[in-house]
Amino acid sequence: MNHVPERNMFPEPQYKVYVSYNHSIEDQEYRNHFEEILLANQDVVIMKPAQIGNIDPNLDVETIRQKIRDEYLRDSAVTVVLIGSETWKRRHVDWEIGASVRKTQDSPGSGLLGIILPTYPRNDITQYNQYTIPPRLYDNIKCGFASIYDWETDPFIVQKWIHDAFERRNKLDPDNSRPSFVENLFGDAWHESGV
Question: Could you tell me how far CA 180 lies from the centroid of its own chain?
Fold first, then answer.
């Protein structure tokens, strides 16, 4: 008699996941779909998005990042960045990534992963342009703290990615050395924007 292993072969704690993304209509649809995928997984809880518009824009960027971390992301275990065509340009995505991986007295910091959406422009689906994903995410992929994946609808696979990101957060240090965006970026790629 053959034993068929269960899909969930490792015990999982319940993860609080924060989703960072560009709020365009097309990316919002994938964000909603991603939430449905995560809801199929009882080990994952989606956190409400940070209301960055409620934070005083006259504060310096580091204070804003700390407020995001301490007031909105304090309980998050993993931050997932959904990467569409314009995500790399958005300062709020940069701030959310920077705040989520930042370790503070009130928070141990979050794990980090990126998921390339079908809206991301590319000719070869096995490749991505490092200069058209969020720069701070790229820094963390380069140092091994974060990973990047293609869009997936299987909750088991997504759960594994989240678990791996959670595990890495205590084994590796994130790279949060890049200066925070002051404004949104423009152009075709961030290396052309002087970032």
Answer: 16
- The type of residue at 72 is Y
pTM for this entry: 0.85
Which alpha helices (DSSP H) does 143-188 contain, by range? 155-168
Residue 8 CB coordination number (10 Å): 14
How many helices and strands in the chain, by DSSP H and E? 5, 5
85 and 187 in contact (C-beta within 8 Å)? no
* pLDDT, averaged in runs of 10, over the chain (195 residues): 46 76 91 88 68 68 74 83 96 90 81 96 91 97 98 93 94 94 89 74
Which tokens hold the place of 56? 């005083």
Phi, psi of 154 (to 5 degrees): -80, 115
